[in-house]
From TrEMBL:
Species annotation: Streptomyces niveus
Domain (Anti-sigma-K factor RskA N-terminal) ranges: 6-38
Record protein name field: Regulator of SigK
Main location: membrane
GO molecular function, one term: sigma factor antagonist activity
Region (Disordered): 70-92
Domain Anti-sigma K factor RskA C-terminal: 104-246
Localization per record: Cell membrane; Membrane
Bilayer topology: Single-pass membrane protein
Length: 253
């Protein structure tokens, strides 16, 4: 999907109307597109306000009041033919009253269900807004590192002809990594980034396993790190490297 097409998906994303693969691709786009991230956040906030405008929380005594009415409200007697009157008439009337009470109870359950749906919609919209806000913050932090006046850059070759570029801003104490043409990791695996603190590796976050190219803000501060490494780890990452590094790069000085 082209970048131009991705720019048009903000509304569908805010309404959870994207397929899983489209959603994953659009969320990767959000990380590098502050404009789309801002638009999604605004749409999610609007959705939340609209949901709250029509959602009404029933009073706590509503259930008890309706149940009391069920027990005391006189119901219309069932219509029966003359042949059905007699010994069985009492049973038929009782069934009619029971069915009427059941119908009222069903209405009550439906009303409660609609209230639950409104709450769920509000929660979904709020969570979407939070995700969009987090994506926007990551995108802004990444852009700040790449555009930092003191940013220093180093590019090197990785595995299978891929290239990697690291950008370091000591003033911001942050680093970003830009990959190009990296092979996808094996199934159930992920590329994990590490800060190299004089030979000791410190977790710096995970790369998107479905993306072979892209930019990622390394998690945590640069500190005294002199370089970085990349390893292949189980999905979710590891507290310490469990494989030989596929790449090691020194930070520019």
């Amino acid at each position: 999907m082209s970048t131009a097409e991705l720019h048009t998906l903000t509304g569908a994303y805010a309404l959870h109307a994207l397929e899983a693969d489209e959603r994953a691709e659009f969320e990767r786009h959000l990380e590098v597109c502050p404009a789309c991230a801002q638009e999604v956040a605004e749409l999610a906030a609007t959705t939340t306000r609209l949901g709250l405008a029509v959602a009404v929380t029933p009073p706590a005594e509503l259930k008890a009041r309706v149940l009391r009415r069920i027990a005391t409200e006189r119901q219309e007697p069932p219509k029966v033919t003359p042949e059905s009157r007699g010994a069985g008439g009492g049973a038929g009337a009782a069934r009619g009253r029971a069915l009427s009470r059941f119908a009222l109870a069903a209405c009550l359950a439906a009303a409660a269900g609609f209230g639950g749906i409104a709450v769920w919609q509000h929660q979904e919209a709020q969570e979407a807004g939070e995700r969009a806000s987090a994506s926007q913050q990551r995108a802004e932090a990444l852009a700040a590192v790449l555009a930092a006046p003191d940013a220093k850059i180093r590019t090197g070759g990785l595995t299978d002809g891929a290239t990697g570029t690291v950008v370091v801003s000591r003033a911001q104490d942050k680093a970003a990594f830009i990959a190009s043409g990296m092979p996808k990791p094996p199934g159930g695996k992920v590329y994990q980034l590490w800060f190299n603190d004089d030979g000791t590796m410190r977790d710096a976050g995970l790369m998107d396993p479905s993306a072979t190219s892209g930019s990622v803000l390394m998690a945590g501060s640069v500190g005294a790190a002199s370089g970085m490494g990349i390893t292949v780890e189980p999905a979710g990452g590891s507290p310490q490297p469990t494989s030989d590094p596929v790449a090691l790069m020194n930070f520019p000085t």
